[in-house]
Amino acid sequence: MRGIYRMKTKDSSSYSKSAVDDFWLTTVLEDRAECACPPDTMKETPMTSPVVQVLLNENVVEAAQSAFDALSAEGFGGLLNKYSKRWVRDRIVERVVDRPHLAREAVGELVADLEKCGRVEMALAWSLLLCLPQSVMSFWSVLPAIRTMARQDLLGVTNVADTAKINRIVSRMQQCAEGKYVSEAKSLWEILRPIVRDEDDDLDQPPLPAPAAAPARPTGPSVVVLPKAVVKSEHVGYRELVGAQVPLVVARDVVGIRNVLRAEYPHALAAIDLLLRDLREGAPVRVSPVLLTGPAGTGKSRLARRFGDLLGLHAFRFDCASAADAQFGGVPRGWSSTMPCVPMRAVQQGGKANPVVLLDEIEKAATSSHNGSLWSALMPFLERETSSRYHDVSLDASGCDLSWCIYVATSNDDTLLPGPLRDRFRVVRVPLPTLQHLPQLAASVLADIERQDGIEGFVEPLAPDELQVIGDAWKRAKFSLRALQKIVGATIDARAQFAMRH
Amino acid sequence: MREAVMIASIRTHVMMWLQGQYPTKDAVASAPVIDQWQVAWIQMTDGSTEMRLQGTVSKRKNMRDGDRIKTTEVVLLDRWTRWARTSNTLYRLGDHEGIEIPLEGI
Is residue A375 a contact partner of residue A434, using CB atoms and an 8 Å limit? Predict the structure, then answer.
């Protein structure tokens, strides 16, 4: 109820009292009667929102520390047993700089669980750590909430100077969300630093919109994807790409990523190494097209997704089974439904020159070539020679450099693909797991189920006799991971059904 | 006066959200739907910018299904982009413009 106290302590001139407010004020009074704190003390010390505590920092490490302090001060009440001070410190605060992807993943988990137990304001404060100026989408859900809270005086900021500072921070974040800092390799706090330090900086003139003749060059590695194009009204979003240096995602912590994947896919160690073979620590991520092939249920799609996820690449999923024409290569400019090719759309959406395009079930694309076919449309993208000089039929632009896009395809049977297409992929076989992988896989499936059902920390690990039964059933299901999920789920249900109740 | 009522209603919704009271499944299921949506930033006359959504609407009162609309300012947007609350309406969000599916959806 802290937010409500805050509302009462604010100057109420900024909003009118209506029946709705009266309802809330009544609720406040009732709650105060139950609360031990006398209202007067609350009035003197209005609490600053954790959101503000996290925002007013000069770098991401301090921000993570502030979020940690705020959570420790408020306590871990309502959260699952899994979360302790130590968990948060080890998994997030300590890793923010060295292993940012793993830290972000842990923050994502924590935010989801905070939301589940209704601690939305704390979740909002933590989700600030997920905001990347390089990805405009990361601001979409955070920004409206913070902006509304700031306008409605719900952030617990009382002094005028801080209020002005917060307003400036919110407008700067808005510029990030509009994509004005997309090509700068800076964290949110580096961008906010001048405001936090009260230094003069030209807020209304963000550094990026430079004259078209000399586009600003981002600090990290970058590449011009779309050198020249006459942009029609349908392509407004692509205007900023014309002639601009688009940043490339750089590989960080490859060893850590390899270890995470190996723990999750103990049966596909060779496949993981082949998948990561092209990566060089500190160099831009560039991977030759990969085709993951193997029987149904070996976890190919999820492996492809995790690969992009851990490397921090923007993922664009293309379902090949429903592709019966050459739309992958773009819809020509003459049609009203004109649309650039899929890799160009992925670059535009993610704001990075090396997104990952996930081609799911590639062998299931329609084989008729009446309207062109996916397989033929894919060819020019898979070879560097042609993909670095692609002519986009929708933007009518020649010389598009799409050679940095990463293609990860999955299929059950690669022999169905035409030879020239298969030759362009590095074929990586994902084998079925065997009984020896069962303990590790079952534990990971169990953890997934716990996370999905929000029962983390309440489920006992699988006992040897249970593993035995699961193993027998799994063998009959031909070692499919999807089947294993069902079997482990059924084991947990059966356990709940036969548990001693008293 | 109308504006004051709107501000109060936004405040109520935000405060309920802050206490973990999200729109119920039924409320989201019966809300108007925006499909093929994308975020639009609108420059206001006072120099500020507002975040709005544009896309094709269905099940919206006084509008035909399939009409292109631009909403009022977005006040809250669900982290998994399942719903969005603008200053006067709750919307259910359909597919994002393009065929991109959030990573978690795969």
Answer: no
Mutation to test the A interface, candidates B13, B15, B38, most A Cβ within 10 Å: B15
Burial of A211 from C-beta contacts in 10 A (0-12 / 13-18 / 19+): exposed
With an 8 Å Cβ cutoff, are B74 and A152 in contact? no
- Chain B residue with CA closest to A320: the answer is B99
Asked whether residue B21 carries a pLDDT value surpassing 80, the answer given is yes
Q: What is the pTM of this model?
A: 0.49
pLDDT digits (tens, 9 = 90+) for B55-103: 999 988 888 888 889 999 999 998 887 899 999 899 999 887 754 444 4
Mean pLDDT check: name the lowest of A16-25, A168-177, A384-393: A16-25
Q: What is the DSSP letter of A481?
A: H
Residue A219, helix vs strand vs coil: coil
- Tell me A335's DSSP state: S
Token code pair at residue B88:
């006067």
Token output for A335: 């049609």
Between A4 and A101, residue with greater pLDDT: A101
Pairing of strands A290-293, B33-43: unpaired
Q: Is B103 an interface residue toward A (CB < 8 Å)?
A: yes
Q: What is the DSSP string of A4-61?
A: HHHHHHS-GGGS---HHHHHHHHHHHHHHHHSSS-HHHHHHSPPPPHHHHHHS-SSHH
CB A166 within 8 A of CB A157: yes
Query: Looking at CA atoms only, how far is residue A501 from chain B in angstroms?
Result: 31
Task: Annotate A389-441 with three-state secondary structure.
Answer: CEEECCCCEEEECCCCCEEEEEECCHHHCCHHHHHCCEEEECCCCCHHHHHHH
- CA angle at B35 for the pair B34 and B38, rounded to the nearest 5°: 85
Residues in chain A, total: 502
Which among A141, A154, A204 has the least Cβ separation from residue B77? A141
Q: How far apart are CA A495 and CA A500, in angstroms?
A: 10
Q: Is B2 on the interface with A (CB under 8 A)?
A: no
Q: DSSP code of A234?
A: G
Contact call for B12 and A1, based on CB within 8 A: no
> From CA A53, how far away is CA A174, in angstroms rounded?
19
Question: Two tokens at A426?
Answer: 């590095």
ipTM of the predicted assembly exceeds 0.95: no
Chain segment A270-290, per-residue pLDDT in tens: 889 888 888 888 888 999 999
Residue A140, judged by CB atoms within 10 A of its CB (0-12, 13-18, 19+), counts as: buried
Per-residue confidence (pLDDT) for residue A385, from 0 to 100: 87
Mean pLDDT of chain A: 81
* Angstrom distance (rounded) from CA A490 to CA A351: 43
Residue identified by tokens 């990860």 is A408
Convert the pLDDT of each residue in A187-200 to its tens digit. 899 899 888 888 76
Q: Which residue has the tokens 């160009």?
A: A344
Residues 6+ apart with CB under 8 A from A78: A117, A118, A119
Please write the tens of the pLDDT for every residue from A194-251. Answer: 888 887 655 544 443 333 334 444 567 888 888 887 777 778 788 888 888 888 988 8
pLDDT at A34: 45
